[in-house]
Structures are given as C-alpha cells and as structure tokens.
Design a protein that fits this description.
Number of strands: 0
Number of domains: 1
Distance between the termini: 116 Å
Order of helices and strands: HHHHHHHHH
Radius of gyration: 29 Å
Mean pLDDT: 88
C-alpha cells in the first residue's frame, strides 16, 4: 500500500513540476485517469460490448447523422489549420527548431492545441458509427491504434507542451482531415457521386507523406539543442515511422495487390476467350474438312 501511495505522490509531483500552468484548469488537461477511462471504454465498446450489443440487431441507419458529423469535422479541421497557421506556423514559428512560446503570447497556439485534443476525442465516434452500422471490417488494428494513440499525443501537448515544435503534427493532420472528411461526406451522398471520388487512394498517399514530414521534422532536432523536450521528439519519430509502416502496408494490400488481382483476372478472361475462339475455329475447320470429304465421296460414286 505504501508503494501505491509513493507512486501517486511521485505522479502528483511530476505533474506539478512539468505541467503548463496556463492549461491546468482546462477540460481534461492533466487528468490522465479521465483520459484512460475514456479510451479503455472506447476500445472495449468497439471490440467487445458494441458487437455483442449489435449481434441480434439490424444495422442502424445513421446516414444523416454521419453526414452532419463529417461536415462538422471538415469545418473544425479547417479552423484548426487556420489557427495553427495564424498562431505560429505562418508567422514566427520556425521549421528547423521551435520551442514552446510562453506567457500570453503563446496562448492562441495553446488554445489551438486544446481544440485539437478535443476534436481527437470526437473522432472516436468514427469507430462507434462503424460498430452501430455493423461495418466490422473497418474496425482494424490500424484504425483502433490510430484513434487511440492520437488523443494521448494531443493530451501530452495540452498538459505539458501547448505549442512549439510538436504542433506541426496537428497542423498537417488537420489539413489531411479536411480532405478526408470531405471525401467521407461526398461518398455518403450516393452512388451517383462515386465517379467523382477517384482520388480515394491518394488520401492514403497524403497520410504517408504526412508521416514522412513529421519524422524528418523531429529527427533533425535530435542531435542538437532546440529548447524542446527531446523525449517528445523521439516519441514523434517512432510513432511517425510506425504509422508510415502501417499505412504503407494498408496501401499495398488495399490498392497494389487488388490492382494486381484485377490484372490477373482480366488476363485469365482474355486467355479463356482466346482458347474458346481457337476451339470454335478448329471445330469449324474440322466440320468444313468433313463436309468436303463427304462431297468428294459422293462425286466419286
């Protein structure tokens, strides 16, 4: 029991020493226990409770709800991009090295980081909608890992580093989400719009480019002083590399292998058609030869 109290005291001391005082009283900032409860509940619902609840039920019709949700995500992501640029990345932030801006001057970026964290929590609804619609094939390891980890990264930002070098991740990720949720909205309008959505595969490419940028952005400050916590740079590098691997594997499976299967299927169909054509021609030739033979016999008689 004394060990538990010691652990709790150590955690409290760590939070008091390293938390940013500007965001201490903000919703869920510094409240790791609350975040863990939310994420554990999310994972449990999406993998156990949700599928069990839906087992003997028909999929929910959530088309209108999801359309509204996607539009909200589009406009909120647009706002986050605007705030990220205006609060630093289009003004005085530097790509090579950017410490957290303290005091009132950095408050706009700090508020943007909290908003980013809040919308990462709302994005958990992506998976909830999948479960309620019985789209279980969409609830993959990649999807769950991505949706669980991003709120954790954003929480670290809000609590300890509401600004600085790591916020480029939020800016680029929000830009990608503008396009991604716009795609989701358009695809929900009906099959007549599918011909305009040929660029789906390029979304995954953009996400992989995103991870490359984040990796380079954080890797290049690991070997020099930047005034930004190096463990966070390590964390972002590792996660960017791992996400690049996961999304790359998804891209190969979803697009390259599927394309190869289509090509092979078309090749097999052409080969079968060619064989069929040759067989028909051969049959006709044999028939013609037999006819000529019969006619010759008749003439001879």
């Amino acid at each position: 029991m004394s060990g538990l109290f010691g652990l709790m005291d150590g955690y409290k001391h760590f939070m008091e020493k390293h938390s940013d005082p500007r965001t201490t009283d903000w919703f869920l900032s510094g409240k790791l226990g609350h975040l863990i409860v939310i994420l554990v509940t999310y994972v449990y619902f999406c993998t156990k409770a949700g599928p069990k609840y839906m087992k003997h039920r028909k999929p929910y019709e959530l088309k209108r709800t999801i359309q509204i949700y996607n539009l909200i995500q589009v406009f909120s992501s647009m706002y986050l991009v605007y705030e990220g640029l205006e609060a630093g990345w289009a003004t005085d932030y530097k790509f090579a090295c950017q410490p957290v801006v303290p005091g009132e001057k950095g408050m706009r970026m700090a508020r943007g980081v909290w908003l980013y964290f809040f919308f990462k929590l709302t994005e958990l609804l992506d998976t909830v909608f999948f479960v309620l619609r019985k789209k279980y094939n969409q609830v993959t390891y990649l999807h769950l890992y991505h949706h669980t980890l991003m709120p954790v990264c954003a929480w670290i930002g809000v609590t300890f580093l509401p600004g600085g070098h790591g916020t480029l991740l939020g800016l680029i990720n929000s830009f990608i989400h503008v396009i991604m949720y716009a795609y989701y909205f358009l695809s929900s309008l009906g099959p007549q719009y599918q011909k305009y959505l040929w660029w789906k595969r390029h979304l995954t490419k953009m996400q992989m480019v995103q991870f490359c940028i984040i990796f380079v952005h954080n890797f290049q400050v690991l070997f020099r002083e930047c005034g930004y916590p190096r463990p966070i740079n390590y964390l972002l590098c590792v996660q960017a590399a791992y996400f690049l691997y996961l999304f790359g594997r998804f891209y190969v499976k979803q697009y390259l292998r599927e394309k190869q299967k289509v090509i092979e299927k078309e090749s097999d169909c052409k080969e079968e058609a060619h064989k069929s054509s040759n067989g028909t021609s051969a049959a006709k030739m044999n028939g013609a030869v037999q006819t000529d033979s019969v006619q010759n016999k008749i003439k001879a008689n």
